[in-house]
Amino acid sequence: MELKKIANLLELPIDKVQKQLDMLIDNPEPIHNGMSTFPPHFLIEYKEGDTRHNYTYTDFLYENVDLCMGRLDAPSDIICNLTLRCVTSCIYCYADRKNNMDKQMPIELIEKILDEAKEIGVVHFKLMGGEVLLYKGWERIVEKMVGYGYQPDISTKYPMTEEQLNNWKKMRATKSPIQISLDTLIKEHLYEILRVKDPYYDAIINTFNLMEKLEINYVVHTVISNRNDLVEDIKSLYNFFKGKKHLLNWMFDPAKCSMYNGLEYKAYKTNRTALENINKYIDQINQEKSFDFTLKKPQLMLDFNLVPKEERIRKFPNRRMCSGNLNAMYILPDGQVTICEELYWHPRFLLGDLKKQTIMEVWNSQKAKDLFYLQQNTIQKSSPCATCEDFAECRKYKHICWRETILAYGKDKWDYPDILCPKAPLINKDIVI
Ligand code: SF4
Ligand code: SF4
Asked: Which residue's CA is the closest to the ligand 2 atom numbered 6?
């Protein structure tokens, strides 16, 4: 009866609600699901004789709790990049790979980092590359992570073999779905995007078929560039994924402008008309209800120079919060720490080095605090932030997207405004986000 009410309220099938609830009843370990984390024993099955508490909201009223947001005392989220090596060389790659391909995290270092992460209570610890599966010893790391209650949550383009998938499953690293990127199943388009050769196409198809056979859940990420922005490209994927049982989600994003790949954005970016056509096709797929989930359409790209001031004034205070250095840290393959993956080795954001320091030493270092509590008198004079009367409020905890600021204005202008800020200067290059 209650199940039916929940299903009606959420407009979901009853069996899906049942499946979600079953996971949360007497769960022995925390469950991480997207942005949400559920603690162990989230719901407890009632047994005859158990005491029933009837809570009301007044039981949870407190007078002296400070609910202002602030920087955490220790990071809750860590992403660790093991290697920048890949099996593909995607035209839209945003990684700073040049001169960094040989940097590999020593296995003893990642083990030491994991030990400390567990000890200080890091909630999410994810692995990243490059290609995690090209890191020699990934099995040892994944096993240790799972033992500590972390799911590696990798994103890969590596065509995994049956043995590797079985390993992954045996290690219980498949509680979170594996994310695989696949941009099209028109072979020539795929090869042009990834710059790969035979037998990649057959091998990656085989990986999906194996995941179905081995009952491993996965999600797919499709990046749209000018090489796969025809409806035919999306159709080629739809025809393949339709009816797949272990596909949990399929996400789309337009290829972003890269700071590092050496190509001009116009060499690979898609356009608004192409995205609108794809979006109409995605609407059609959603109407057919071929999947248990609703496909989210890729966002139409936006030229920030054209956003009217009134819209900026309205939207800027509601911008998303930057998690870097607030609760999250990013570890580079050489052990150096930065605040966000796409800043890589930008010197202003390097907070320390885990080859010589502990996580807590880096998190509590003067450099990390100086960056978080940035002083207005240290901002370069040409930046509107240097004289902005809203500086204190703006930089209190929400901060700005440093990545986008650097992308728009250049590496040396890292202390310029967020690109959505009403005071942001015009952007003189083609970035379109
Ligand atoms: S980003 Fe905008 S609001 Fe924030 S300090 Fe800079 S100029 Fe002021
Ligand atoms: S710099 Fe931008 S992309 Fe990076 S964590 Fe902050 S908001 Fe996210």
From this structure: 322
Q: Max alpha carbon distance in the chain (Å)?
A: 71
Quick check: CB of 322 below 6 Å from ligand 2? yes
Task: Determine the distance separating the centroid of ligand 1 and the alpha carbon of 271, expressed in angstroms.
Answer: 30
Contact 178, 156 (CB under 8 A): yes
Nearest CA residue ID for atom 4, ligand 2: 340
* Closest C-alpha to ligand 2, atom 2: 401
Tokens 């004289």 locate to 387
For helices 14-24 and 2-10, angle between their N-to-C axes, nearest 10 degrees: 110
Query: Coil, strand, or helix at residue 143?
Result: helix
Structure tokens at 266: 């116009």
pLDDT tens digit string along 365-394? 999 999 999 999 999 999 999 999 999 999
Q: Exposed (0-12), middle (13-18) or buried (19+): which is 62, by Cβ within 10 Å?
A: exposed
Pocket test for ligand 2, best of 316, 329, 342, 420 (most atoms within 8 A of CB): 342
Task: Let me know: does 110 contact 51? Beta carbons within 8 Å.
Answer: no
Reported as a single tens digit per residue, the pLDDT across 132-187 is: 999 999 999 999 999 999 998 889 999 999 999 999 899 988 888 999 999 999 99
Which numbered ligand comes closest to the C-alpha of 328?
A: 2
Angle, alpha carbons 287-292-294 (nearest 5°): 50
Q: Which of 124, 126, 125, 138 is nearest to 85 (CA)?
A: 138
Phi-psi region of 155 (alpha: psi -120 to 50; beta: other; left: phi over 0): beta
CA quadruple 144, 147, 151, 155: dihedral, nearest 10: 20
Torsion sign across C-alpha atoms 419, 311, 373, 340: negative
For Cα atoms 355, 359, 360, give the angle at the middle one, nearest 5 degrees.
Answer: 135
**CA atoms of 217 and 172, how far apart (whole Å):** 12
User: What are the tokens at 355?
Assistant: 């080859």
Measured from CB, residues less than 6 Å from any atom of ligand 1 are 384-385, 388, 390-391, 394-395, 400, 417-418, 421, 423
For the Cβ of 157 lying below 6 angstroms from any atom of ligand 2, the answer is no
In angstroms, what is the span from residue 393 Cα to ligand 1's centroid? 9
Q: 266-292 burial string, b = 16+ CB within 10 Å, else e?
A: eebbbeeebbeebbebbeebeeeeebe
What pTM does this model have?
Answer: 0.84
For 398, list phi and psi in degrees, rounded to 5: -70, -35
pLDDT for 310 beyond 90: yes
